[in-house]
Specification:
Keywords: DNA integration, DNA recombination, DNA-binding. This protein is mainly alpha-helical. The chain has 14 helices and eight strands. It has three domains: about 70 residues, no CATH class; about 80 residues, DNA polymerase, domain 1, CATH 1.10.150; about 160 residues, Intergrase catalytic core (hpI Integrase, Chain A, Orthogonal Bundle), CATH 1.10.443. Helices cover about 45% and strands about 10% of the residues.
């Protein structure tokens, strides 16, 4: 658990299962109140499984680290292994991302052999190399955060005597934005992929539901109710073929689909004799449709963009043509409509203000 100050009030950050929870404790932030709340909530908070496991793992690693080890040079690879042990209680996808980020960080540091050789000059060279890669703002921040956490861990474990990390601002490329397709472009793309049955049904589902790539590729025959006109989304598949739960609790949902998609799914299922999985994902990975997607865009004369833009296309078309915000948000699997509004407000029509509904109100006579 962690206490923190917010406008003079004491707040608590902890975990309930795998979910991070932040809440006000309703008292002023003073040393006495912190001590009181720690005693009062300590037993309850320590019951969190994830936090308890991570704390135990950290203590185990620190106990295993002896003073004698500090007398000889410590290899970066061994420190990285210890650092990544702290992620073992997290999802496999998160662990894999952490490992990939750590490999990239070491590459940008110049692949040092010993932990003691990482100094402020190394960190400066890290920033210089990072600035030259042209990574997105999000990825850049993730790598900087990974370096900071790694050096903080090394300092806490006494692998280094001083933390060389410092912050430096880096110019990153301007985000490309949502880049949704227009209805005309959607029709062009679907017309061009008539000969590719799998690609066509994938894009039809994607454009007409806004579901994420992994959610669509994980669909099974039992998830589709053609009589009621619904699709149940309760799993996703990672790039490594792992069947996982959807991104958030709200992503676990049942969505209504238009008649055109019902007909397309019925034909696809019947013609291909689908009994279980809707898409032929290869063992150990999921179906990769990026090449076909980029080829279709090129043939249509459309600027190259991510396959994920089908989700933005659905949301922008729904809202641009007067679709209900709450229904669109629920279909996308957002936690609330505010998330949808903040992401797609630009696509909601903004007609001139009209006072017509107010003209029918009788105000009586004014002298």
């Amino acid at each position: 658990m962690r206490f923190y100050n917010r406008k003079g009030k004491l707040y608590l950050e902890t975990y309930e299962g795998t979910k991070r929870v932040r809440k006000s404790l309703g008292v002023d932030d003073t040393p006495d109140n912190r001590a009181l709340m720690y005693v009062k909530l300590g037993g309850q908070v320590d019951g969190g499984k994830i936090e308890r496991e991570r704390r135990a793992k950290f203590q185990q690693i620190k106990n295993a680290h002896s003073t004698s080890t500090l007398m000889s040079p410590i290899k970066v690879s061994s420190v990285v292994d210890k650092f990544l042990e702290m992620t073992l209680s997290l999802k496999p996808t998160t662990q894999r991302t952490m490992r990939a980020h750590m490999r990239r960080v070491l590459e940008l540091l110049g692949n040092p052999t010993y932990i003691e050789s990482i100094n402020k000059e190394s960190v400066l060279n890290f920033y210089i190399a990072l600035a030259g890669r042209g990574f997105s703002r999000t990825h850049t921040r993730s790598l900087i955060s990974c370096l900071k956490n790694f050096l903080d861990f090394s300092m806490t474990m006494d692998y280094i005597q001083a933390n060389p990390f410092f912050k430096r601002r880096i110019q990153t490329p301007k985000p490309m934005g949502k880049q949704p397709l227009s209805p005309t472009e959607v029709s062009q793309v679907l017309e061009l992929c008539k000969g590719d049955t799998i690609m066509r049904i994938y894009l039809t589902i994607a454009f007409l539901t806004g579901a994420r790539v992994g959610e669509i590729l994980a669909l099974r025959r039992g998830d589709i109710d053609l009589e009621r006109g619904t699709i149940r989304i309760e799993r996703t598949i990672s790039e490594y073929g792992e069947i996982l739960t959807p991104k958030t609790d709200s992503s676990n949902r049942t969505i209504s689909i238009p008649a055109s998609l019902q007909n397309a799914l019925k034909a696809y299922i019947t013609q291909n004799g689908i009994q279980d999985a809707l898409f032929p994902n290869p063992p150990g990975r999921r179906l990769n449709l990026r090449k076909q997607w980029h080829r279709l865009l090129e043939q249509c004369g459309i600027t190259k963009r991510r396959l994920y833009c089908t989700r933005h296309t659905f949301a922008s078309m729904m809202l641009s043509y007067g679709g209900n915000l709450l229904h669109t948000s629920a279909t996308l699997g957002h936690n609330n409509a505010q998330i949808t509004l903040s992401a797609y407000a630009a696509y909601i029509p903004n007609p001139q203000a009209s006072f017509a509904p107010l003209e029918n109100i009788s105000l009586g006579a004014y002298q």
